Amino acid sequence: MIVGEASGDLHASNLMRSLQQTDPAADFRYFGGDRMQAVGGTLIRHYRDMAYMGFIPVLMHLRSIFRTMEQCKQAIRDYQPDVVILVDYPGFNLRMAEYLKSKRFLSSCTLHPAPVICYYISPKIWAWKEFRIRSIRKYIDRMLCILPFEVEFYRKHHYEADYVGNPTVDAIAGREYAAETFEAFTQANGLTHRPIVALLAGSRKQEIRDNLPAMLEAVSAFEDYQWVIAGAPGIEPIYYQQFINNRPVRIVFGQTYRLLQQSQAALVTSGTATLETALLRVPQTVCYRLPFATIASFVFQRFFSCQYISLVNLLAGKSIVKELFGKSFSVRQIRDELDLLLNDPSYREKMQQGYQEVIDCLGSPGASEEAALKIRSYCTNCQKK
Questions:
Q1: What residue spans in the chain does CATH classification 3.40.50.2000 cover?
Q2: DSSP string, 54-87
Q3: C-beta neighbour count of 383 within 10 angstroms
Q4: Does domain 179-362 have CATH number 3.40.50.2000?
Q5: 2-172+365-384, superfamily in CATH?
Q6: What is the pTM of this model?
Q7: pLDDT, tens digit, 9 for 90 and up, residues 301-329
């Protein structure tokens, strides 16, 4: 299994548990994280050593990325697995899939047949880099989607994919502390009794650096609330402190769902967190700062194939939550939107209605179990052939 970020670590760990249920003898080796390691198997490399985002960071770390790719190739040659499961992370994973279909790799499969290549959590090629469909058709044996509209997208490109449900629905349904009270949460974390505004500034240092300062400046106008940052896995508390300075802000780690379900509103950097926030029915504003904002807005409008950046709006096919990115990202815009979320009941209610539409379209929990069954079935069928 190959995972490149925190959300992939979470979903891959749940898939591992489901695979163990379908086959108790299943053995895993992976590029992943702490959650996968807690399930079992062998961690070869941690995702935090691989998570480079943006053109410049990738360019600066090319040597390290190439070393990681070679390490991954060698690990697969040594292990000779029955199946390779790629989890999102397309820049790395599609190159790895190409290698696994190459003559160089196939010639090394002397003891076992070539592994089945399954992709769990599709790359977002429907948003941009649609040309990657060629690589998927050529190198991926099975695509398991977690967004309903992706199946139709692939069908349009003459590639059959499966919708298995959404693992975030599973994670929310199976979360701990679902019945926790506000008093219990605040007491456990040394917080006050004032209502909470949650700040989810991303899972990577670059995202946090770009978004958290503006978020903190915006919420400072709401003195009747306490502001709590959801600390990202793998990010040290000291990294956040440089942006907090002397502000009365708290950080909680490993408690994002607990924090959200006790919050009155949230400022969220785009990603899986926007969907998690919606499933927990917390009013939110999506904040995503981009360098060269005007140019970034132009590029998005001209070169991206979708209208929205948040999963909530993409799933609904319309604007449910306000997206502040590019030239619309500013402290004033964030502050105005947060004021609506906190003080306009009709605005909050309309957003809740939109959330319900998203919840209905995603369906019931069970994505990991369905994905595991399909992977197991597909591998069995390939072995028979």
A1: 2-172+365-384, 179-362
A2: SHHHHHHTHHHHHHHHHHHHHHHHHH--SEEEEE
A3: 10
A4: yes
A5: Glycogen Phosphorylase B; (3.40.50.2000)
A6: 0.82
A7: 554 556 788 999 999 999 999 999 888 89
